[in-house]
């Protein structure tokens, strides 16, 4: 059975992913990953372009969690598993091709490693607002209005 169904895939592909790893000293590390994508129905992938800390953490402890949440609906997924770093070989080359076909400019020059995540669990993440009866449409409208009221960055 596929862990990464169509709805999970759509959310991963449309939202910025945040990757949680564990540093060698045991402290948590959280980093956004704009290249997070679905590799297949059981795996995610991201490209190490500017991820030296994340990759170093995964080399010493492959446990990983990925959170993808739609900022307007306040719903998404927590995907947990183990990661493998590929900086040479067939999987690395497949990863370069994967990102080239997705339109990444100069992928072969920029990508230092391909990280494949074997997803072991997928759990929904939702706002507590749903618990008191809010609908997705209401939350989208509320958060869209809130974001539109904010001044543009650097224009204060």
Structural notes for this entry:
This protein has 156 residues and is of the alpha+beta class. It has one domain: Pnp Oxidase, Chain A. Helices cover 31% and strands 36% of the residues. It is built from 5 helices and 7 strands. It has helices at residues 6-14, 52-60, 89-101, 107-110, 136-149, and strands at 17-22, 28-33, 37-40, 43-48, 63-70, 75-86, 113-126. It has a 7-stranded antiparallel sheet. The longest helix has 14 residues, at 136-149. It is globular, with a radius of gyration of 17 Å. The termini are far apart. The model has no long low-confidence stretch (mean pLDDT 94).
Main β-sheet description: 7 strands, antiparallel
The name CATH uses for the topology is: Pnp Oxidase, Chain A
Mean pLDDT: 94
Which overall shape is indicated by the principal axes computed on the Cα atoms? globular
- What structural class is derived from the secondary structure elements? alpha+beta
Name given to the CATH homologous superfamily:
Electron Transport, Fmn-binding Protein, Chain A
Task: Spell out the helices and strands N to C.
Answer: HEEEEHEEHHEH
Task: Assign a percent range to the helix content.
Answer: 25-40%
What is the compact description of this entry?
The chain has 156 residues and is α+β, with helices and mostly antiparallel strands.
């Amino acid at each position: 059975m596929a862990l990464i169904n169509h709805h999970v895939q759509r959310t991963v592909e449309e939202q910025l992913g945040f990757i949680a790893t564990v540093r060698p000293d045991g402290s948590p590390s959280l980093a956004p990953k704009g290249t997070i994508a679905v590799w297949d129905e059981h795996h995610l992938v991201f490209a190490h372009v500017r991820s030296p800390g994340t990759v170093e953490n995964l080399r010493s402890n492959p446990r990983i969690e990925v959170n993808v949440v739609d900022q307007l609906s306040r719903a998404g997924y927590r995907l947990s598993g183990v990661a493998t770093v590929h900086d040479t070989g067939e999987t690395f080359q497949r990863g370069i091709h994967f990102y080239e076909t997705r339109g990444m400019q100069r992928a072969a020059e920029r990508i230092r490693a391909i990280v494949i995540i074997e997803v072991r669990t997928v759990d929904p993440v939702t706002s507590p607002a749903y618990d008191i009866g809010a609908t997705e449409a209401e939350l989208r409208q509320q958060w869209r209005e809130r974001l539109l009221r904010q001044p543009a960055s650097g224009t204060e």
